[in-house]
Amino acid sequence: MAEQVNVAYVFPGQGAQWVGMGRDLYDNFDSAKAVFKQADEALGFSLSRLCFEGPEAELRQTINAQPAIITVSLACLKAIYDGGGSNGLPPPVFVAGHSLGAHFVYGDSVRTILDIGGQDAKAIICDSKGRVTNFLMNDKCAAGTGRGIEVFAELVRVPIEQAGERSLQVEQEPPMVSSTCVVFAKSEALTLLRQGWNVNAVLAAYLAAMAHRTVELLQRLGIEKELVFTGGVSKNIGLVKRVEREIGAKALEPRIDPQIAGGIGAALFAKALVEKSRKVAV
User: CATH number of the domain at 92-282, out of 3.40.50.300, 3.90.170.10, 3.30.420.40, 3.40.30.10?
Assistant: First the structure.
């Protein structure tokens, strides 16, 4: 059996930007278009227009160039995978790093990892050694990410650290908001507030919708016991409880901060590579 090779997708850095970059991806791949739309929503301005139309002087500014380059790079990656051009390429070690980190944080019984960060959500299946066997990333806008919770918390003037707990302080679970887009969800929330809903109920409606979309991502992949949460949103008790309720299973309790699982996994990869290089040198 051929040795498994770790794959890393290396994205370009600042200086690679140019006016018009990513336009062909946006025009030809729905998955790439979704990446641009998510970036526009997260940043609060049309990064896609800046990429496609300039002006060049503004695009060159570091504050714009960095997010522009990573957005185009991710759009390219999504187009390759969703367009059927990956030809069975293994997942990148960045995602594998999350699985190794999750094993470090939760133990070797982990099989399904739900990682929700500021800009994306990933569902990962791994084996007993923490190696990725399958994964999916969300294809919606910021509504399914930590950024979506942040926007919503700001809207109702609740500290993001309290949003999850406040969402559970309702007498009855309200109907979830219907939109998968943060912009429309915000509009829907304002309507609910004008109708007399209290803040806790509005937070509950949003987090219930986010939990449902998260479960849909998990179900597309297939849920294997044991389930764990990583990423910053793992600390949102309102989302975690609603996901557990919908799938009918309880996630494992972390031994250390699950928000840093990805960083721990990257460190473990780096340690293994250094040790391997030392053995080769000897």
Answer: 3.30.420.40
